[in-house]
Specification:
By secondary structure, the protein is an alpha+beta fold. It has three domains: about 5-160, 2-Layer Sandwich (Beta-Lactamase); about 215-315, Helix Hairpins; about 315-460, Histidine kinase-like ATPase, C-terminal domain (Heat Shock Protein 90, 2-Layer Sandwich). It has eleven helices and twelve strands. It has a five-stranded antiparallel beta sheet. A five-stranded mixed beta sheet has the order 7-9-10-12-11, covered by helices on one side. A two-stranded antiparallel ribbon has the order 6-8. A hairpin with a 2-residue loop joins strand 1 and strand 2 (about 100-105). Helix 1 runs antiparallel to helix 4 (about 155-205) and helix 7 packs parallel to helix 8 (about 360-375). The longest helix is centred in the N-terminal third of the chain and has 59 residues, at about 5-60. It starts with a helix and ends in a 5-residue tail after the last strand. The model is unreliable at about 420-430 (pLDDT under 50).
């Protein structure tokens, strides 16, 4: 069952129950109030009529002292009073020692007419022949053997209760129907945002990650819509990231297959040549040299891939590094390669220490200087600077061939090479800048590249802190 239906039924049941209980209590209160009011009126009126009867009895007693025992005379006095009050819907009766002397009605029950003392009044109402009659009986003052009975028809209060009950039944139907319509419209309006959210969630689940809900409200549903949109944005970003990651992995695999294809083809080709050919010793030596170069390229490729793989799982322990020691190690490492190319390495440092992993940073600098050397010509100079500007900065500058802006954006991608023939000549596999980028990330550093075609390149590693 849908939420709005549950709320609808629950609210309707509670409302109808509360309304019916309220109507019942109101009807009961009104009935009891009218009944008490009729009782008070009857008691007062009985007292007035009893007073008139007592006055008439006292006056007659001057002429007949035994009149209180004279049933005929008592009946005459009662008849006179009864004729007057009968027009007002009042019936009277008189009993002498609970013997009926005069009565406007029959079947009086002597037991419920009995009173405890002269001051007490016995009040009771009961149904007689589909009528509700209110009886008030009491002894006559100074004549305890006489019991004066007053009766009044109060069936109107029963009719009132029946009428008001019928009225509430009709009102109950009208109210329930009205409540159903209004409650239905209200709940559909209130729960509409939930329906919108549900539909939107289904669309997002089907792959429409750019979908957003538009609910302009400041209540809880409005806050829920904002949270939902925030969640949808996060899902979209994650999906884009996953898609890009999958594309990058596929591109990496494609590039790796391509990089391995050329040396593997050479290895297979020259191996077959050496196995089958009857060439001269000189040609066999040339074939072996090509075979050796291809194997060396495969070795370099596997080593660089291993470095990149290890860096993805590296847990870096940062320590205080002596800058001079790091630069001296760089000069020793790069000297053979740079001397072969007739390229000079200059190092400048205005910072004595900073925090990092010495082995990883040496690998980073080696890759940057190697790239700078490949981009430079014989006699050029590559400069490495370490200085402070709010944080530690490592800068590698060359005056080589430079890059276009679109090339700068791709330079950290695996296997990307600007000058493929020049890179292969010096054994490059296109993973150097990927390794540099990863090492920078492990140090919470930012990689910044400035380059201009034909002018040169500056690569900066900007660390977040000094220590």
């Amino acid at each position: 069952m849908k939420l709005w239906k549950k709320i609808f039924l629950g609210t309707l049941i509670i409302f109808v129950a509360a309304f019916d209980v309220g109507a019942f209590l109101l009807t009961s209160f009104a009935y009891d109030y009218n009944r008490e009011r009729e009782t008070e009126i009857a008691v007062r009126e009985q007292s007035v009529i009893l007073s008139s009867f007592t006055s008439s009895l006292l006056r007659a007693e001057h002429f007949d002292p035994e009149i209180s025992m004279n049933k005929a005379r008592l009946s005459e006095i009662m008849s006179s009073l009864s004729n007057y009050y009968r027009k007002q819907g009042v019936q009277l009766a008189l009993l002498v020692n609970f013997e009926h002397i005069y009565s406007d009605f029959a079947d009086l029950d002597d037991l419920w007419l009995e009173c405890e003392d002269l001051q007490s009044k016995n009040v009771i109402d009961k149904r007689v022949d589909d009528k509700r009659l209110l009886f008030v009986s009491s002894p006559v003052p100074d004549y305890p053997q006489l019991t004066f009975v007053y009766c009044r028809d109060i069936s109107a209060i029963d009719e009132f209760r029946s009428e008001i009950s019928r009225f509430f039944v009709i009102l109950n139907v009208i109210v329930i129907v009205s409540a159903c319509v209004l409650l239905f419209l209200l709940l559909k309006h209130i729960t509409r945002p939930i329906t919108v959210l549900n539909d939107m969630a289904a669309e997002i689940a089907d792959g429409s990650y750019d979908k957003r809900v538009e609910i302009k409200s400041s209540d809880e549903l409005g806050q829920l819509a904002k949270s939902f949109n925030h969640m949808a944005e996060s899902v979209e970003k994650n999906m884009i990231s996953l898609k890009k990651s999958a594309e990058d992995k596929q591109q990496f695999i494609d590039d790796l297959a391509h990089e391995m294809k050329t040396p593997m083809t050479s290895v297979i080709g020259y191996s077959e040549y050496l196995k089958n050919a009857n060439g001269s010793k000189e040609n066999q030596i040339i074939a072996l040299e090509h075979l050796s170069d291809s194997m060396l390229r495969l070795k370099n490729l596997s080593e660089e891939l291993m470095k990149l793989t290890l860096l993805r799982e590296e847990i870096t322990e940062l320590k205080l590094i002596e800058v001079d020691k790091l630069l001296n190690a760089l000069e020793v490492t790069m000297k053979p390669s740079l001397d072969t190319r007739n390229i000079k390495l200059l190092t400048e440092a205005t910072l004595e220490y900073f925090v990092g992993d010495e082995a990883l940073l040496l690998s980073l600098l080696t890759n940057l200087v190697e790239n700078a050397a490949r981009a430079s010509k014989s006699g050029d100079c590559v400069t490495v600077r370490v200085y402070e500007s709010e944080s530690a900065i490592i800068e590698v500058e060359d005056k080589g061939i430079g890059m276009e802006q679109e090339e700068i954006e791709k330079i950290t991608a695996p296997f990307y090479r600007i000058d493929k023939s020049r890179s292969r000549e010096f054994g490059g596999v296109g993973l150097g800048m990927s390794i540099v980028s990863r090492i920078a990330t492990l140090h919470n550093a930012r990689l910044e590249i400035e380059s201009e075609k034909g002018t040169g390149t500056v690569v900066r590693i900007i660390f977040t802190t000094l220590k």
